[in-house]
Write a structure and sequence with these properties.
The chain is an alpha+beta fold. It is built from 10 helices and 10 strands. Helices cover 32% and strands 17% of the residues.
């Protein structure tokens, strides 16, 4: 999986190799013939020279060369910021149509006229992204082991899953998943990660149907910090009037899989219901409003230009991924349908690709109740105080128009 650091390293190598800059870096007075570039999946780029000092003018020229390359083409991979994935070679049209999407028939058994219950959510979201996001493009979905997670099916059990991944100027990653097993199970899942220059919550969407008799829905602005005021701007006040419209979406989460006080907001849309009409009458319009409001929140929030602030937000997104990967309630389903190794790669390298993979592999046992285990600090866990760079007294209050 190629990330930003691979491209910057390549750019640095290319620029250093160019004349006359190459001479400045390899000359006897300030030479750097043994300069090395160290790249790690979870660490920033480090130039590690084996010398005490280099030609300051040469270094400045190197920085200017890289900067000019990045600024000359905003769509270039070199323009990517922290945590970005490599762009896919596919066009938007090709990526959206992969594996026959959007499907219009199910692989499973059905007695319903609309067997793909949540496909309207998928289609609306993709159209909204194309109409509303800046420089939207598909990104690489490969895993570290080169496992193809864009599509998987189990013909014997009549189940299949499709995944797409996109990025824009506003979001470093938007992933979309549709799981189809006929009337037995229908799932639409999506997570929108703002570019870490925005200290804002992650948009999480998880909507499921079981046997067309039991339904579960979660749509939320999932906070990075325990205190809402520690984000770049507050947001729960703009969600509250939306949630107030839908009494069927005001449920409370049990602690079976997650602790609702960790990475969940007070205005989370949560529902368990048995009346399928709620999907179209309440859930779909509420979902649309939350998606529109999240984008409006991002677009109306000034981005940070402080690298330390951006890194701090990125670390909180990493903590979110680790916490979520360790508690994914669908892990057992994925392992049973598509194999344990595929499920591990899918959860750790696609769904929550910043998360730390457990040394013991995927945990398929029933998830523990409540929060993280003792001693888990630093490996995910709840939003925390005192670790983010935005103090209440250091930022002006901002407001976002309601939708």
């Amino acid at each position: 999986m190629k990330t930003q650091q691979h491209f910057v390293a390549a750019a640095a190598s290319a620029v250093i190799a160019s004349a006359p800059l190459a001479h400045a870096f390899t000359s006897s007075n300030g030479g750097c013939s043994s300069c090395s570039v160290t790249v790690s999946r979870h660490s920033p780029l480090h130039m590690a020279p084996s010398y005490d000092s280099i030609d300051a003018q040469a270094l400045l020229e190197l920085e200017n060369r890289i900067s000019s390359v990045i600024q000359s083409d905003p769509s270039s991979p070199l323009a990517l910021s922290l945590g970005r994935h490599a762009p896919s070679p596919l066009s938007m049209e090709e990526a959206a149509a992969q594996h026959g999407m959007p499907w219009d028939t199910t692989i499973g058994r059905t007695d319903e006229a609309n067997p793909l219950l949540y496909m309207p959510f998928w289609e609306w979201q993709l159209e909204f992204m194309q109409d509303s996001l800046s420089n939207l493009h598909p990104i690489d979905c490969s895993t570290l082991s080169d496992t193809d997670v864009t599509f998987k099916e189990n013909k014997e059990k009549r189940a299949r899953i499709v995944n797409q991944c996109y990025a824009s100027d506003e979001y470093r990653k938007i992933r979309m998943t549709y799981y189809d097993a006929g009337d037995s199970v229908q799932v639409f899942n999506s997570v929108w990660y703002p570019d870490p220059k925005y200290n804002l919550p992650v948009l999480g969407i998880d909507i499921l149907s079981f046997n067309r008799k039991k339904y579960l829905a979660i749509v939320d602005f999932q906070p990075l910090h325990e205190d809402e005021d520690d984000h770049a701007t507050t947001y729960e006040h703009i969600l509250k009037p939306i949630k107030e419209k839908y009494d069927n979406l005001k449920g409370r989460m049990s602690s079976k899989f997650y602790d609702e006080t960790q990475f969940f907001s007070k205005e989370m849309l949560f529902a368990r219901f048995e009346d399928g009409k709620i999907v179209d009458n309440d859930l779909l319009p509420a979902f649309k409003s939350y998606v529109k409001t999240h984008l409006n929140l991002v677009q109306s929030t000034p981005p940070s230009t402080n690298p330390q602030d951006v890194q701090a937000v990125f670390e909180r997104q990493r903590a979110y991924d680790t916490y979520s990967a360790d508690r994914d309630p669908a892990a057992g389903l994925f392992a049973a349908m598509f194999g344990k190794q595929w499920a591990e790669d899918f959860i750790y390298d696609f769904l929550f690709s910043l998360g730390e993979r457990s040394e013991d592999g995927l945990n398929l046992s029933p998830p523990m109740f409540g929060g993280p285990p003792p001693g888990a600090a630093g490996k995910g866990g709840p939003p925390q105080k005192g670790v983010n760079p935005y103090a209440k007294e250091n930022k002006a209050a901002q407001s976002v128009p309601r939708l």
